[in-house]
Design goal:
By secondary structure, this protein is mainly alpha-helical. It is 81% helix and 0% strand. The radius of gyration is 19 Å and the shape is globular. Residues 23-152, 170-305 form the EamA domain.
Amino acid sequence: MIQRALSAFAISEHRHWWQDGRTLALLSAAGFSLKAIFVKLAYAAGPVDAVSLLALRMGLALPAFLWLAYSAQGDPLGKRDWLGLAGLGLVGYYLSSLFDFLGLQTISAGLERLILFTYPSLVLLMEAAWHRRPISGRIWAAMGLCYLGLLAAFWHDLVHTTASTAVLIGGGWVFLSAITFSLYYLGTGRYVKRIGSTRLAGYSGAMACGFVLGHFLLARPLDALAGLPQGVWGWALAMALVSTVLPIWLAARAVERLGASRAAAMGTVGPVLTIAFGWLILGEPFSLLQVVGLCLVLAGITWISKAKAA
């Protein structure tokens, strides 16, 4: 085992970080893990609703997405490619983000990340259903560990709040976010080889911005963003760059190198970082029950990853 680790390290010394799919997936997970922290800090910085905050995030991210799309090279896209990119933007960073922001109004950042982190198991289930492939008993057992860990994390949040119904509703919104993000991951695996990771991130991200801003214009007056406090703008900008554009680009490159399932399973650092930052920065309660839930979810996802690789 030590010899294998040394060999992997020797290989990685001759490979730039942007060429290593595992490193790209881990950095993407780290960026996404900070999103919940930024959202909570933005909610605390002033009165802002989920739709307005999401519109601010995606509006600030739009120039970077357009630049990615403009700078990328490749063959002309056909009608089916454009429809696929629109679908990815719709489920991945419009619906998924909207559901997530709604959920974060009532649940902790740590619970949000643990719920979202079940998406590798959802990706695997969707792939198995699509290809009509049976799922082994080991993988079912691993999934059981994941959802047992989620149950422990839910209990942690319920113990530390008087609004138990709000926690359950918020958790439901975030689980819908995990489902739609899983669909995005599967779609990325299908289109990234033909379109390229940079173009896929740029075009699908820009289309998602269009969906979000269109929703905002239909639901809110145009000047609603102008009255928001500077703190909300600052955290939205951090969210746009660190937890939107950069991890989307990194995730697309990781999927290009590893495939959807393996890239999804590499994000074990995400929940750990989110729970740690939630405790250090937001002052969220931290308990043994939450640690148990975290360990169970991480163990389940790791088991799924190994079973899939085998």
